[in-house]
Amino acid sequence: MCACDGEARTTLKLEEGGKGTFLETSFEIKENAVRFWLKNQNAGGEKQVWRYQHYESYASYQQKRATLMACLRKVQKMASDRKALERSAWDKIVEFRGLGYPRRILRTACNYLGATTGERGWFEVRDQLGF
Hints:
Helix content: 40-55%
């Protein structure tokens, strides 16, 4: 309890990262090489953590698009290589699909990132979305 304003405060607690996790990064070591990507507790389609608003929420389209693009840019920044990017991006796309984001918007985001960054993995993810 904070004496200054009477509000209860929660303290930060260290949580177990699990095997192959360090801070916000998941990683694997194979054949003397380290592959890493953005940690995603919802990877594989399991909803463990709720993070973003549903597409039908009251938020503006611009806010939804900005949130999506920021998340996907972070996926790229945290990926060590194309394979890691594709794996991590697909998990994030599935998460947004579960929140009702239309396939067209997700395809457009992947296409834009592929065109502006030169990373061909975005086109692979886009193509997996179908039409």
